[in-house]
Automatic annotation (TrEMBL):
Residues 23-260 form the SET domain. One of its GO terms (cellular component) is nucleus. One of its GO terms (molecular function) is protein-lysine N-methyltransferase activity. InterPro entries: SET_dom, SET_dom_sf, SETD3_SETD6_MTase. It comes from the Eukaryota. This is SET domain-containing protein.
Length: 483
């Protein structure tokens, strides 16, 4: 759709009309970051009893689950759309609302029987029409993520977004007014849906009272690893941007908040389209799949109930990793694992998980605790460490065998990629390579320690003897056949 746009210079007029108040700050265009908020005169929160307010936004402008419901009460056509295509999550409902506002904004000069205008119909015109999040990268650009933890995450998100868009089209095409407005005139494309998703992800906030929300004007504030401001909800239910305690800022300084100190480089790039090398948590998350030849693989996945993952983090040089599924993955029937399908009196069938004859269905996601007291815990831990180490090694091999953006010749496809994407991908690759190398080394150390554990040595010794006995037996059976 022709994306509606307004210059950001017009934002103060919108703010005035809608009672959003800027105090000593203004919107400005900043190098490499799009728009941002800049201080107009010096402010000081040192020893202040009341922290200086930089921006206040009335509650009626906050876009959250409740606001979408309220809008649906005013607009029965939107209610119909929401009823067939929404009500799955706050995010989905907000995206549907934004989709409608965008179409209304882009058709402002044309008469339409659907859609009630509201402050967001205008505000959406100030939002950027581009976002550097990888779901909006070109195919060539996405190749730069090969081997990083974002490779599969971005592909999965693209598949999910495409399915969402197809579903909205399918369910709303039966409603004549929405069919006319959204689909028949081809007003909306899949790329629009990707952009709305990117805008939502990079601009939504978690407010103490209003929950997951988009807040106009406050969503213009950029991120810094040493932020000078923070947002909150006031007693009057306004969303306010306040100067941080103890902070002094001068005219011309940029006002910034933190988008989350605990976010990894991959999360920052995925949600916001940039990586702040000073402020990302040294961590990564990888998917984990059960052994392809495990006959219990399907049951384990169903019992676990969520996509299996490995989390790795490095704090002050020491590695921490966690993978609940790896514990379930490494136990089998001979260890005491069992699955039974039980049927209740109403005929509903349910998969139950048993560990050493006890029903542990409710603890299936925490097998680490369940096996702590097992006499062969060290052996089970060795299996888990080996699984995790092999998965990380596979990832590292994939990462290092795909060429880094900077090592590609100018004539290669890299020239078809934007430099911001190449820079971000290159930084992500460096960060993840270093975490993977450090983690593999730590896991190898633990693996060697476990191999020296007395119980493990005794168990492996007994297995070797048993194997030799089988070989002897087979050899003597073979001799019989030829005698
Ligand atoms: C909440 S919006 C902030 C307003 C945005 N700059 C604009 O022009 O509308 C978040 C987006 O701003 C940009 N951004 C914020 N902080 C940044 C930073 N420190 N470095 C680079 N880009 C940043 C990213 O594009 C991010 O997705």
């Amino acid at each position: 759709m022709p994306w509606p746009g307004l210059p950001v210079d017009a934002l103060p007029a919108w703010a005035l009309l809608n009672a959003a108040v800027f105090h000593d700050v203004k919107i400005a265009t900043l190098d490499g970051k799009g728009c941002g908020l800049v201080c107009e005169s010096g402010l000081n929160a040192e020893g202040a009893y009341e922290l200086p307010t930089l921006l206040s936004v009335p509650h009626n402008l906050v876009l959250n689950a409740g606001a979408v419901e309220e809008y649906a009460k005013e607009d029965r056509n939107f209610k119909q759309l929401l009823d067939v295509a929404g009500h799955n999550s706050t995010r989905d409902d907000i995206l549907l609302f934004l989709l409608v506002q965008t179409v209304l904004a882009s058709r402002a000069h044309q008469s339409s029987v659907v859609g009630v205008s509201n402050p967001w119909t205008e505000y959406i015109k100030f939002l950027p029409q581009e976002a550097l999040v990888p779901t909006l990268w070109t195919e060539d650009e996405r190749l730069l993520l090969r081997g990083t933890s974002l490779e599969s995450a971005v592909n999965a998100k693209i598949t999910a977004l495409t399915a969402e868009f197809d579903k909205i089209q399918e369910t709303s095409s039966d409603i004549p007014c929405w069919n006319d407005l959204l689909w028949q005139s081809r007003a909306v494309s899949l790329r629009d849906w990707f952009l709305l998703d990117a805008l939502y992800r990079s601009r939504c906030l978690e407010l103490p009272k209003s929950g997951e929300s988009m807040v106009p004007c406050i969503d213009m504030v950029n991120h810094s690893s040493s932020p000078n401001a923070f947002y909150d909800e006031s007693v009057k239910d306004e969303t306010v941007l306040l100067l941080r305690p103890g902070v002094t800022i001068s005219a011309g300084d940029e006002v910034t908040i933190s988008y989350g100190e605990a976010k990894s480089a991959a999360e920052m790039l995925f949600s916001y389209g940039f990586i702040d090398p000073d402020a990302t948590a040294d961590s990564l998350v990888l998917t984990l799949a059960p052994f392809p030849d495990d006959p219990l693989a399907r049951a384990k996945l169903v019992a676990f109930g969520e996509p299996p993952k490995i989390h790795v983090a490095r704090n002050n040089g020491s590695i921490h990793w966690e993978s609940s599924f790896a514990y379930l993955m490494c136990v089998n029937e001979e260890d005491g694992l069992d699955f039974r399908v039980l049927q209740d009196t109403e005929g509903n069938r349910q998969l139950r998980v048993f560990w050493q004859n006890a029903d542990v269905t409710d603890q299936a996601a925490d097998f680490e605790s369940l096996i702590q007291s097992h006499e062969l815990f060290a052996l089970l831990r060795l299996r888990v460490v080996t699984i995790v180490q092999e998965r990380l090694q596979d990832q590292l091999d994939r990462l290092t065998s795909s060429p880094a953006p900077s090592s590609l010749p100018a004539s290669s496809d890299i020239s078809a990629t934007r430099s911001e994407c190449a820079r971000a991908a290159s930084l992500l690759r460096q960060i993840e390579t270093s975490i993977l190398e450090g983690s593999i080394e730590a896991l190898e150390k633990e693996r060697l320690e476990l191999l020296a554990d007395a119980n493990v040595v005794a168990y492996l010794g007994s297995m070797e003897t048993a194997n030799l006995d089988i070989v002897d037996e087979e050899a003597s059976n073979g001799a019989d056949e030829f005698s």
